[in-house]
Specification:
Layout: H1 4-23, E1 27-30, E2 36-40, E3 45-46, H2 50-67, H3 73-81
Antiparallel strand pairs: 1-2, 2-3
Helix pairs in contact: 2-3
Length: 84
């Protein structure tokens, strides 16, 4: 059973993850040739930056590990084939 201290830790982790995602949202800009590119405003490199790439990879692995044991292969395929 979760106590109030565990709930507070979970809340802070969620706030930290949300802050991270907001600070690494890509911005659209143009290069010297006029081509539109996405840049991470926090890291000043092409999107996804290394930190966001690692974050997305960890989220994908977490999603896979939560879906595979339940036999929800439709959920796994839908998660990684959807176009956003």
């Amino acid at each position: 059973m979760l106590n109030s201290e565990d709930m507070e830790k979970a809340r802070k982790i969620q706030l930290g993850l949300s802050q991270f995602e907001r600070s690494h949202i890509p911005e659209e800009t143009e290069d010297n040739n006029g081509n539109k590119i996405l840049i991470c405003p926090q890291c000043s490199v092409d999107f996804p930056c290394e930190r966001m790439l690692l974050f997305m990879l960890v989220q994908s692995i977490a999603a896979l590990t939560s879906m595979i044991p339940t036999g929800n292969m439709a959920g796994v395929l839908g998660r990684f084939s959807s176009k956003k």
